[in-house]
Amino acid sequence: MSTLLHVGVRASNLERSIRFWRDGLGLKVAKQRENRYDLTDGYHNFAIFQHQGEERPQHLGGMLDYLHIGVGVPDVTAAAKRLREMGYEIFSDGLGGKEPLDPDNLQEPAFKVEDPDGITVDVNGTDTNWPGTTLHPKSEA
Question: What range does the domain containing 111 cover?
Fold first, then answer.
């Protein structure tokens, strides 16, 4: 079986993106290089590069997005409140589009938020939604 090792994103503003992924969602910086951060959850590499090409078209979000990223967190309410305090909208994306959520009154252990470039991030406090995943892997004895 193959192993997922790495996902990379080219950010329009590297420092703003790092604050979102590191401070907002809690990924750890494994290495910092010029125009790049390597973040990790302890199992996978998530590299964020500073976009250096021509101006990019805006990322499509919501039900029209072609990419979203799922992140598991140990405390979904705390993550939602932290991201709201950082100025991000917390929402779900029902059939009618974005539906704002109140981090103080989440009905489900999940929410969505967009990173600084508009990439939808599906933040989840449980691994039951994604077959084959484990949010809190058991340590090997």
Answer: 6-51+61-124
